Amino acid sequence: MRLLATVTLRSNQFRSHFLPIVAIPEVEEVVLVADRPPPPDVPKIRAVIPSPTEKRLLGRAGSKLVRCARIAAQMHPDWILSYNIMPHGVNAHVAARLAGTRTMFHLIGGQDEWRGGGWRSDNAVLGRLPRPVRPVERALLRVIRKATVVCTMGQAARDDLLDAGLRPEQVVVVPPSVNLDRFMPAPADAPRAYDVVTVGDLIPRKRPWDFVRMIAELRRLRPQLRVAVVGDGPLRGEIEDLARALGVADSVDFLGSRGDVASIYRSARVFALCSRHEGLSVAMIEAMACGLPSVVTDVGDLSDLVHEGRNGHLLQVGDVQGLASRAEELLSDEGRYARASAAAHEDAAGYASVARVSELYRRLFLGEPADVERPS
Q1: Structure confidence at residue 376 (pLDDT)
Q2: Bond before 87 cis per omega within 30 degrees
């Protein structure tokens, strides 16, 4: 099989979605149309990047559309893959019409990619809408319905698409994968520099101010608390100011974007996420594979992997006191923590290993039933 894909992702996201695909023996090559090259450690990928002149004349989305259409017409790929409906899903649909081939849309941003017209999505255009716009929502759903297969990150996103009228056989849950050779628990007696870690862009939907307020609550219970914030974004200055205002700046290390995030997980004890919406967080899966119980908001598809009381806790958006209380319960009870840590690794490895997700993709590409049981 030869595949054409269009997306631009950060390195860890790219690996989580593409390592299972290139692991399929039948996949010979993936031609990637993107804004930048993929990580060099992912094989079988041939990147095509629009030139600065193309981007200047056609814009980022338009230049990738022209490249996709041209390559599809010449290559006649077996499948065209896209991640996020705007603009990549639209580009894939146009290219597939020209090439007469099949499409697989990955809605990695969850329901908010299309619900309300994408007004709460991360898309640079749709995310600026001040309120839900139903005509835009209907237009996005029309594009989604054109896909041969629609992959969601979890069951809640799939259920919403079925309620919107998509066929059950068309919509399949395919989680992001975790490379268990990179993301593994540290030895039980290894020193831990951080009690709590969060990883993600410092953007509004991640509600990083709630994370800082959670830390302020937790600091009252644990004066020696140490915390890591991995990631960068437009809210960083504001969040650092908030940490100073709440008197916890000396407890929090703002580490920025890091390439060694696996080692940071292994030096931490609990993972936290305060988002107002998610698909299924790649960062959370990786943290859990490293044995970190997760204390997160109950949004998107996070509950597909976080099982209340077993491997972490699910709280309502904005419940900073609840998030702090649950983190303190884990940090203060070694027996409880050890059980939750072991369960976190077991559940992440069983649900999102590269081998399991690769088999899901292989069956979809070959037209076989895609139900792959988790290891017991």
Answers
A1: 46
A2: yes
Hey, what are 248's tokens?
Answer: 């916890």
Structure tokens at 37: 């090259």
**How confident is the model over 164-191, as pLDDT tens digits?**
999 999 999 999 999 999 999 999 889 9
With 0-12 / 13-18 / 19 or more C-beta atoms within 10 angstroms meaning exposed / middle / buried, residue 40 is exposed
Residue indicated by tokens 């302020």: 216
Residue 330 φ/ψ, nearest 5 degrees: -70, -45
**Taking a C-beta distance cutoff of 8 angstroms, is the pair 120, 111 a contact?**
no
Q: Which is the CATH superfamily of the domain at 194-352?
A: Glycogen Phosphorylase B; (3.40.50.2000)
Rounded to the nearest integer, the mean pLDDT of the chain is 95
Specify the DSSP element, H or E, that contains 46. Answer: strand 45-48
Q: Which CATH superfamily is domain 2-177+353-366 in?
A: Glycogen Phosphorylase B; (3.40.50.2000)
Convert the pLDDT of each residue in 119-129 to its tens digit: 999 888 999 99
Domain residues of the chain, as ranges?
A: 2-177+353-366, 194-352
CB-CB contact of 262 with 180 (8 Å): no
Name the maximum alpha-carbon separation found in the chain. Answer: 63
> 124 with 291: CB under 8 angstroms?
no
pLDDT above 60 (res 162): yes
Q: 194-352: same fold as 2-177+353-366?
A: yes
CA 175 to mean position of chain CA atoms = 9
Close Cβ partners of 29 (under 8 Å, ≥ 6 residues apart): 2, 3, 44, 46
